[in-house]
Specification:
heterodimer, A: mainly alpha, 12 helices, 0% strand, B: mainly alpha, globular
Chain lengths: 312, 364
């Protein structure tokens, strides 16, 4: 194998890694905001599915994929608002509520598909978001193939990682979110409204989850498929745990998962005889391995999953 | 119970326990009416076919039993884990492993008498589910890895593993389609109510229901499991081996889901056919357990409810033209209400409200 060929493969793997990591990045950022404020959001999987469907629908109706993305984010936020209401106001078991959201997403997107497109399985093709071509960088040989021709949502994901990190650790609101997730009583004593912060964070997590879903249907593909999130919402949560509830950490974990997915295609190219089913298992098995590696060292926000009862 | 409770107290308690699931069901069905109307259907016609499709004739009822029987077991499986404070979202994967293991055992042995082959195949399915659940159980006990994430991941791994096994290892000759060989007659369960696919597996499921009840409430082991679920720390203080109980409860829970898969092969499908997605029985089991308040008797009723809905949905879809996904939606809404029910219990516990004016937030 000559150098050119190897560099080509490396560039290709980097690009595929970034693409595969993008929906995970959005969703894990969503998970971080929700859990940092003290609400477990296992419904992210379903929220992504909702986001994917409505983004596709928006693009289909308006022929403008960006409006589709907005619709996906909006619906994601609304669904999260239900979760917020049930978890915060009704003080429900947050995992159970999340499971309900996932069930709701599976069945209702299938139902909507039949209502709007009179079909099952997958929708027709819609206008997708075209890849960008970054000026200057696309002149540099290997780098060009690796990072210059990606979907704008990929760049947005990376941008949001930095933004979320700043927001969470350098702003007052970020501090309040973390305070409410660690010790709601103390935060309340200082005049922070625990409920408001939690509503805000959970809704934000839904908007980000919806954005992740929108990438699935309009960035990676140009249509909606039933159950197309395929566990990525859960993998995103695993990335969040692995990344210790930090945007940067979660980003790195997402890249690792993206790499696992990108390698799926490469093993065959390199002539390695691994049954494809085992490659499909890779991201899920990796999730378990990583979780085992970090637990103990990775500690969840103290009040995560505990409904706030008000000060005693 | 040291002091016997009066029948009236028991009646009152069971009414309150029943009331909330019924309210949940009612509200979900009403929301379903709105969805049917929005889909352009006639709610009355749709619900009639939903009911008629499940109970309209003896063979239809037989088909309903085909849907009820795995839900009894997966529901029981999730409920048992809940009793130990574990959320087994992995019932789906354990069910798949049970199916593929039973499909192997049912077809691999050709000369066994049925009295040996039949239970052996069931046990193989149970063992597969047992081991599949023991892995996340062990990870939980040993490393503290939360079972919610690990069991979900095990579901996907099971799906792809079964895909591999049916395509590469257990594929039936001549190997053109991804199915395992038909199991031997000696491993098949007898048919009931022909021409429906109902089979004696339902009796096995019902027996398990009773056994789990006896296990949880009448044995020391069961008591320990419930104690761990009730208060982990207190149980540890009382000298109960929490680690052992966590692994054991999740593994037994997995065995029940595995058995559900085995019975599906032995009584209904007779072979494993490549899955192109989850079967849904494991996930519905979560709903069944929650609606049934994680009690075997509750599981019986909610499995009947969900099973008959799933069965009747086919006629609703083909005759009334309402997609069967509506049922999934109704079930999801029920779970939302059940989630809110936790608050009701907590309020009752705190303020010891005995008779039930429902708290304001849940009076919908």
């Amino acid at each position: 194998m000559d150098l050119q060929f190897v560099l080509g493969i490396i560039a290709f793997v980097i690009a595929s890694t970034l693409r595969a990591a993008t929906p995970l990045i959005f969703a894990s950022l969503g998970g971080i905001f929700s859990e940092r404020s003290g609400v477990v959001n296992i419904g992210l999987e379903g929220i992504m599915l909702f986001g994917a469907f409505f983004a596709m629908l928006g693009s289909y109706l308006t022929h403008n994929p960006w409006l589709g993305v907005l619709l996906g984010m909006l619906v994601g936020g609304l669904v999260a608002l239900i979760h917020a209401f049930v978890s915060i106001e009704l003080r429900a078991n947050q995992v159970v509520s999340g499971v309900a959201i996932n069930m709701l997403a599976m069945s209702s997107t299938a139902l909507f598909l039949q209502k709007f497109f009179h079909t099952t399985g997958q929708s027709q093709a819609v206008t997708k978001i075209d890849d960008w071509s970054l000026p200057l960088i696309d002149q540099i040989p290997v780098l060009s193939d690796a990072i210059a021709h990606l979907n704008p949502l990929v760049y947005l994901a990376i941008f949001l990682v930095v933004t979320a990190n700043f927001f969470l650790f350098k702003t007052t609101t970020g501090l309040r979110i973390r305070a409410v997730g660690e010790n709601p009583d103390a935060a309340a004593t200082l005049g922070v409204s625990v409920h408001k912060i939690r509503y805000f964070s959970v809704t934000l997590s839904g908007i980000l989850g919806g954005l992740g879903g929108a990438y699935l249907s309009l960035g990676a593909m140009d249509l909606f498929k039933e159950n197309m999130s395929a566990g990525q919402g859960f993998i995103a949560l695993a990335a969040m745990i692995t990344g210790k509830w930090n945007p940067i950490g979660a980003f790195l974990a997402c890249l690792l998962f993206g790499l696992a997915e990108a390698l799926e295609g490469q093993f065959q190219l390199l002539g390695l005889e691994i049954p494809k089913q085992f490659l499909h298992m890779l991201p899920y098995a990796l999730t378990i391995v990583l979780i085992l590696g970090v637990v103990g060292r990775s500690v969840a926000p103290a009040a995560s999953g505990v409904p706030y009862e008000g000060r005693k | 119970m040291s002091n016997p409770r009066s029948p009236i107290t028991i009646l009152k308690e069971s009414t309150t326990k029943l009331l909330f699931p019924l309210i949940a069901l009612g509200c979900a069905l009403i929301l379903g009416v709105l969805v049917i109307a929005w889909m352009g259907g006639d709610p009355q016609v749709a619900y009639w076919h939903l009911f008629n499709g499940a109970f309209g004739s003896l063979p239809k009822f037989g088909e309903t039993l085909v849907y009820v029987s795995p839900l009894l077991l997966t529901g029981l499986s999730v409920a048992l884990a809940f009793r130990c404070g574990l959320f087994n979202i992995g019932a789906e994967g354990q069910y798949i492993m049970g199916m593929i293991a039973a499909a192997w055992c049912g077809s691999a042995f050709t000369n066994l008498p049925f009295w040996l082959h039949l239970p052996l195949t069931m046990l193989t399915g149970m063992l597969a589910g047992f081991l599949w659940a023991a892995i996340p159980g062990y990870f939980k006990a040993k490393f503290g890895a939360h079972e919610v994430i690990t069991t979900i991941m095990m579901n996907y791994i099971a799906l792809h593993l079964s895909d591999f096994l049916v395509n590469r290892v257990l594929i039936a000759p001549p190997g053109t389609s991804p199915v395992t060989p038909i199991i031997n007659a000696s491993a098949k369960l007898s048919n009931l109510l022909p021409p429906s696919r109902a089979n004696t597996g339902i009796f096995i499921a019902l027996t398990c229901l009773i056994l789990v009840y006896l296990f949880l409430w009448k044995t020391k082991w069961g008591f320990e499991i419930r104690a761990v679920g009730y208060n982990n720390e207190a149980a540890r203080y009382a000298g109960i081996n929490v680690t052992k109980n966590l692994v054991l409860a999740l593994a037994i829970s997995g065995a029940l889901s595995g058995l559900a898969g085995a019975l599906q092969i032995q009584g209904v499908q007779y072979r494993f056919v490549q899955l192109f997605g989850f079967t849904g029985y494991g996930f519905d089991g979560i709903a069944v357990a929650l609606l049934g308040n994680n009690h075997p008797l509750g599981v019986l009723f909610s499995a009947l409810l969900f099973g008959s809905m799933n069965s009747g949905a086919l006629q609703m879809q083909s005759v009334a033209g309402i997609p069967k996904d509506l049922i999934g939606m109704i079930q999801a809404i029920i779970i939302f209400f059940i989630a809110a029910d936790y608050m009701l219990k907590r309020l009752k516990f705190k303020k010891t409200i005995q008779s039930t004016p429902l708290p304001k937030e849940v009076q919908l």
